[in-house]
Each structure stands twice: as C-alpha cells, then as structure tokens.
Amino acid sequence: MDTVTLEDARRVIAAAEAKAAEIGQPMNIAVADAGGNLVSHVRMDGAWLGSIDISINKAFTSRAFDIQTKDLGDNAQPGNQFYGIHASNHGRIMIFAGGLPLSRDGQVVGSIGVSGGSGEQDQSVAEAGAAAL
C-alpha cells in the first residue's frame, strides 16, 4: 500500500504553514498515513491548544471515510444521511471543515487535518497543504 512518508508530511505541513502565515492565522496541522495514523503534527506559535486534538482527528476522519470533513459535515446535519456520525469511532469523528484526503495517482495515501481558525480558513490551509503532495 502506498502511503504518506515523513518527507511527504513535512512538505505538506510546510505548504500549509506558509498559507496559515499568509492569512495571519496560526494553525495546528496534522498529517496521517494511509492507515489513518499520525505521521506528523505542527502547532504553530499562538495556535489554540484545543485545536491540537481537533486537527489530528480531522486527519483521522478524512482518511477513515476518504472524504473531506467539510463534505461529511454537510451530510451529518439533522435529517441527512450521516446525522450522528460524529458520535462514532469513540468520538474521534470531526464534521468541521479542514480535513482532506491526500491522493497520489488516484489512490488515497493519507490525509491532512487543520484546525485553529474559521472553517473557511482551516479549509484553505488544508487545501494549500494537500496541493504540495
């Protein structure tokens, strides 16, 4: 199975950090491998402590379901097909924007999770990181 390496994770995190610095919002940035396991995490100076766990769990969620957490969140609202999913997996499922699968040659090889700003900010920083893979 192809998976994100530490070198890949460092490249993804560096690109995400650059975007976070550009928008002036310190972030927690996590990268998980193809198994959903944490490869690397960075807490930028001034990023919220509470967002450490959220960023790691966004990366887990994105890989566990091979979906952007933003899209999962849209489908997890009351009356929608995934309502209540956030209570699964011992509460590790995040339904906020900022988690994205990482793909190489059409195959999911890991994921990125970003937390520390608004959903829109988290999403843009995660997208910048993913683009570096």
UniProtKB/TrEMBL annotation:
Which domain of life does the protein's organism represent? Bacteria
Looking up SUPFAM superfamilies in the UniProt record yields: GlcG-like
Gene3D superfamilies to which the protein is assigned, alphabetical: Haem-degrading domain
Protein name (Swiss-Prot/TrEMBL): Heme-binding protein
Query: What is the originating organism of this protein?
Result: Arthrobacter sulfonylureivorans
